[in-house]
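One such given next:

>
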Amino acid sequence: MNPWLTAVLAIVGGLILAWLLALAALLIVRPRGNLLTEAVRLLPDLLRLIPRLARDPQLPRGIRVRLWLLLAYLAMPIDLIPDFIPVLGYADDAIIVAAVLRSVVRAAGSEALDHHWPGTPDGLAAVRRLAGLPTGPTTQ
C-alpha cells in the first residue's frame, strides 16, 4: 500500500477516534435528569454570564483563562455535533458549558455566579442546580 495513503488513513482514523472519545466524555459529564434541558434553555443567559465572569478581575487568572477558552470554543463554527441537528446540536455546547461552569463555581464560589447572573431568579436557581450548588435564597 502507498505510504501516503497509509498516513492519510491513519490521520483520518485518529481524528474519528478522537471525535468518538470526545463524544464519550460528553456523555460522562452531561448533567443528569432534566438539567440538560434546562441548560439548553438557559444557554442565552449563560452566554452573557461567561464573559462577565471572564472579565471579573477578582477571579483567579486560571478561572478567567478557562472561561475565555470556553468562549473561544463556543465561537468556533466547528462543533462535536453540528448545531443544525435539532436539540443534539446545542446539547454538546450546553454540556461543555455546564462542565466548565461546575469547575468555575467550585473554584470561585457561588458569590461570583450570583453577582454576575444576567437572567431571572428562576434561571439562577436552575444554573445553581446545574453547577451542583444548593438552590437556596441568593442575593443579586
Observations:
- Residues 3-29 form the longest helix (27 residues).
- The mean pLDDT is 78.
